[in-house]
Every structure is written in C-alpha cells, then in structure tokens.
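User: Show me a protein chain along with its predicted structure.
Assistant: Here is one chain, sequence first, then structure tokens.
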Amino acid sequence: MLNDIYNKRIIELAGNIPRLGRLSDPDASATAHSKLCGSTVKVDLKMNGDTVTDFAHDVKACALGQASSSIMASHVVGSTASELRELRETVRKMLKENGAPPQGKWEEIKFLEPVRDYKARHASTLLTFDAVVDAIGQIEAKIKQPAAAQG
C-alpha cells in the first residue's frame, strides 16, 4: 500500500534535511532530475583525495527524494568515493532487484525499502545517490586531466 512508503520515519527524514543550501567553492556540482515526477536534487561536493570533506544540496523533491537526501547529507562527509559508488549500487539493487538494504551508517535506507513495489518512485529515491556519484566523477576527471597533460 502507498502509505507504507510514506511511513513515519520517511516523513521525519524529509522534514529534517541537514546541509541544505550550496557551497561557495565546491570541487564539483551535479544535478539529478526525475522527468517522471519533476523532482530535482543539486549537490555540491568537496573532496580531499578520495574522501568527502564537505557537502551541501538544494532539494526540490517529493518526500522520498527528500528522505534519501536527508540520509545522504547525514553521512556523506567522511565517506569515500568507492563507498558512495557502492552505496548507489546497493540502493539501486534494493529497489530494482530485491537486494538487501545497506548496513552500518547507511542502514536508515531500509526505511526506503517499501519503495521497491512502486517503480514510478524509484527515480526520485535515487536522485541524491546519482548526483553524488556524478560529482565524484567530475572531481576525479579534473584530477586526471592535469596529470594527463603533464604526461
């Protein structure tokens, strides 16, 4: 039932999103948009090497997009690029392939598990994960570009 995906914890997460706004000097910015529902998440990311050091986001999304963005913002600083890529894949599999939700610091994503039964809601739930991975890719490309120019 649709009420299952809008459970109490999802509403709490959506109503208390940390790190809202934009960074003044991000290493990269990325936007993810769902054409189906119109939700948009813009993220700003700073990294030192492989580790996220700062994060901000502008979230114009439904409660599911807000909730997943809230979870991301609560735990992204200190996470590594490989951890965040793996997280996106784990959440994608949770929604689309009946995979298990992540464990550890990301375990609150389990509250999004009922979204699995509503394909139309998958895109908005994945927005923050897609945008963060996009921003990481931009930062890595910038790092490789000067190295390639020197080589």
